[in-house]
Amino acid sequence: MTQKKTPGKHFDPHKNYRGTMKAIGYVPRAKATQSDYDRIGFKSGLEVHQQLKTKQKLFCRCPAGVYHGDNDYHAEIIRHMRPTLSEMGEYDGTALMEFKTRKEIVYRINNKTTCTYEIDDTPPFPINREALEIALEISLLCKLNIVGEVHITRKQYLDGSIPTGFQRTAILGVEGEIQLKNKKVGLIQLSIEEDACREISDIGHKRIYKTDRLGMPLIETVTHPQCLNPDELREAADYIRFLNRSTGKVRTGIGAARQDTNVSCEGGTRVEIKGVSHNKWLPELSHNECFRQWALLHIKKLLLERVPDPQKWEMRHAEVDPYSLSLEHANAIGFAEKGYKVVAIALPEFHRILSHFTQPGKCFTNELSDRLKVIACIERPNITSDEDLNDPLSENDATKLAALLKASPNDAIALIWGPDEDIPTALETIDERCRMAFDGVPRETRRPLPDGTTLFERVLPGADRMYPDTDSAPIPLDEKYIEKLREGLPVDIWTRYQQLAQMQIPEDSHAYILRRNLVPVIEEIVALGFPSRFVGALFGHRLKRIEGKYPMHNDFTYHKLVDLFRFLKDNNIHHSIAKLMLPVIYQHPNMDFNSVLTSINFKRRTADELLAPVDYLVEKFKEIKIAKKDRPENVVNWVMGQLHKQALGNIDPAELYSKIKERVG
After folding, report:
1. E strand spans, 206-256
2. In Å, how far are 70, 504, 508, 541 from 501, measured between CA atoms?
3. How far is CA 87 from the centre of its chain?
């Protein structure tokens, strides 16, 4: 965050930002303890979305898992969404907000991945039974109670991510649980649903999507809000991801799994951070969101001390001409030259509120700016004030605008700009968000950023957006069918953790092994007679580093390593050579193993041949004087280092070390 001081202005927004951060007791996550989270009442849960590995989409017969570029399309369809009444005769708040944006939605369609179902020109096919079966298996793994009959419902989405304006979804199981290290976390439900479009751009009143991902089978696992610190949240997310992947029937890669996390603090409300693509982001995001809510509750307290009756609070505004007022602010002048309308706003009793801390590097002004971007569709920068942290109004500008608006010293002065047709929505949006500040924390969905902060995305949907799908008949689930599925379930993830511990596989490799569903592969190799600790470390340490360094060949599979160890066993080659062979196999999986050995210059040597140069190396060690003290272990370690690579594949390194130690004496 760049700090810019306004010459001659006695109020320092940065000082107020730091002061309010201290007032709410903000603690960086790296320094936070459980007592900090108990103090603010941290509570969080998850909605984990996972694509299923099926050949076809959920409600049509288009191929699943076939993707195309942003500009690879055969046609475009334009739509304007509008809300519909629920069964109870009410409109969903999110739908009304999206309608207010007046978005033009453009869909880029590729004939290979889209049919008339996706664009809502034909009714749905019967649900994909392959997807349903996979989803039921995962429901059983989650220890959920399976429903007796599957009912397809519609969930309204007016952001344009689904051309129909609704997503077909069905609950398959309710009330299950997962086992973490120190506690159990309850599961509310698991649903099967169709995936949405991928967004290409969202600028102004135009949003562009591509439809390749649209309609792909997806499951959503929802937990109870029982995670009481960010690390528990990450652990629960990892557990669900590992559980899904243990079936071998889900998609992996970027975008195949996405998490929404619901966060609240004591006195706050449920806020959803939507579309977290990396589990490692969850702790920082949930930490900052909980403190954001804590900050908003502090703002509420300050405002209610100043304005006992919020119903009487009124915002004032006036259109201004930056030239006639001789304003100095560059954005006000620049946007006025573009033909934008510039409006000054007085926010009674909001002095020191606009620069109040909300998130690291952000203040309450960002709460207003985000909504101007999303609801009024005015691109950033779209607002400044006398309390802006980065580009504030000068003292002269603030004085002139305060006089124009008849503002008191306790009022905040803001300036917004935008196209003439968007200004009414912008003013309504600012007024609405400021009034919400008197109530504390608005229910909303927020978008994650890599730095651990979030942006406003939309109003949090309610139950009014759900209604039955009259195009789809109920699907009965016979108890015998469910029991048959139960018989073929993979091993429980908690049991896998225990197995890895029993096999003495390093704990820091467990996450990688479970994320890649490698335990069955490791078990096959161990069954050949190889030590489990070595095999586990080879996967969890060596292979992990290789994957981070080299691109994976399309023909490489983890099961290739079973073939490698079988080759080593059949040819009486010590398994230590696998460390050197692995990078070659990863990049060239079609190369035969003898050729791999040739490429790494492996030569057969007996123990006597390996030990032959020991005496020479001992004398060499004395000559170069590597250590000040000629301790026997120093000599042994250095000689071992010289012979180690030649020994790999020929002898157990531990055995070689022992023999060198005997020779050195």
Report:
1. 206-210, 217-223
2. 46, 5, 11, 16
3. 34
Q: Which two tokens stand for residue 607?
A: 């123990």
Report the pLDDT value the prediction gives residue 627, as an integer from 0 to 100.
52
Q: In whole angstroms, what is the distance from residue 151 CA to residue 464 CA? A: 17
Residue 377 buriedness (CB in 10 A; 0-12 / 13-18 / 19+): buried
Query: What does the alpha-carbon distance between residue 92 and residue 462 come to, in Å, rounded to a whole number?
Result: 6
Instruction: Note the pLDDT tens digit of each residue in 347-379.
Output: 999 999 999 999 999 999 999 999 999 999 999
pLDDT at 2 over 50: no
For the chain, what percent of residues have pLDDT higher than 70?
95
The pLDDT of 551-576, averaged and rounded, is 95
Unique residue bearing structure tokens 């047709």: 421
- The string of DSSP codes covering 131-196 is HHHHHHHHHHHTTPEEPSEE--EEEE--SSSSTTSEEEEEEEEEEEEEE-SS-EEEEEEEEEEE--
> What number is the average pLDDT over the span 573-598?
95
| C-beta atoms surrounding 195 within 10 Å | 24
Q: Sort 340 into a burial class: Cβ within 10 Å, 0-12 / 13-18 / 19+.
A: buried
CA pair distance 68, 210, nearest whole angstrom: 8
Spell out the residues 6+ positions from residue 177 whose beta carbon is closer than 8 angstroms to its own. Answer: 142, 143, 184, 185, 186, 187
Vertex 63 angle, CA 57 and 67, to 5°: 105
**Which amino acid makes up residue 495?**
T
Average model confidence (pLDDT) across the chain: 92
Outline where DSSP puts E strands in 240-281: 257-264, 271-276
Find which of 1-5, 95-99, 445-449 is predicted with most confidence, using mean pLDDT: 445-449
Cβ atoms within 10 Å of 598's Cβ, excluding its own:
12
For residue 236, what is the enclosing H or E element?
A: helix 230-246
